[in-house]
Amino acid sequence: MRTRGTGNSPHNRFHTIVTDRQARDDWYQDPEDEICPDSIATQVAEEQVRSIISRNQSPDIPFEQSINPYRGCEHGCIYCFARPTHAYWDLSPGLDFETRLIAKPNAATRLRQELDSPGYQCRPIALGVNTDAWQPIEKHRRITRALLEVLLEYRHPVSVITKGALILRDLDLLSELAALGLCSASISLTTLDNDLKRRMEPRTAAPATRLRMIRELTAAGIPTSVILAPVIPFVNDHEIEAMIEAAADAGATRASWIMVRLPHEVSGLFEDWLRQHFPERTDHVMNRIRDLRGGKTYDASFGQRMTGQGPYTELIRQRFDRKVRAMKMNASPREPLRADLFRRPAGEQMTLL
Length: 353
Hints:
The chain is of the alpha/beta class. The chain has one domain: pyruvate-formate lyase- activating enzyme, CATH 3.80.30.30. It contains 12 helices and 11 strands. It has helices spanning 95-99, 107-116, 138-141, 143-153, 171-179, 194-200, 207-219, 240-250, 266-277, 282-292, 311-326, 345-352; strands at 28-29, 43-46, 54-55, 65-67, 70-71, 100-103, 125-127, 158-162, 183-189, 224-231, 254-259. Strand 8 (158-162), helix 5 (171-179) and strand 9 (183-189) form a beta-alpha-beta unit. The protein is globular and about 60 Å long. The chain starts with 27 loop residues before the first strand and ends with a helix.
């Protein structure tokens, strides 16, 4: 399907027990879908959220708090680990995840309320984890920008991750945060091959554009790293060294990697995608993925789910580490984002009154 990651809409695993379909009653279809006018247009519903900060206790994720301005993601990355979250909304992790989105228009208001709570403890917030905060609909919705404005006002630390060029629109806010030691950015890079990018993640920024994003973020004084995510056996693993070198040349000072993860419905979607685009190597890829996960396509165990285990994982780690050293990346410990500047402007004004 043109400019979509998948044309499949598999039933989600909660289909027989989820009955609340309220979130689907007011879908809005943009009549001027500039990105995909000749395919299935993106539809957007709105959710008035009761809370916006999610907490994380996973030991292999480097943040305790996160914010997702949207549910679903228009980028259409076939491998996206977050696809199964759409099942909770009685939507398919397949085509629905990338075409039937849910926006959170009151996100900035809720963020203010949570930061103003007397019991709130300031810790860095990761912006855009289960959904890209700078996906195409953000151009008009501007929910991410509103969140950044609140974080700057409260002097709150934030780390951002994206593969969307729209992040450059918000360089003014990000650079101001970074000047205070409150912001870092990570750019997800999966390939330098435009054709593979179009097949694997159709609505994301082109590889050359992502390298430009790194250059411009770095030039604006924002500490910028690159994440090779995901590494997929026999699909993009041969590009590891080239991607690290290109990112380092663009100004990235740190790098990390994550092995492809295929939880729940993503496994079937990904295998179908392989059979469509790489039929001659589908079994080879899937067998290697199972080798990494103890015979299964996914293992959620902490310490293994991000990398897998076995000889192939060790080979990827050695190749990655060798090239990172050669490019003088990760040379010093990461500077923590500051939490000591946090303030509550509204509370200070109330005190004066």
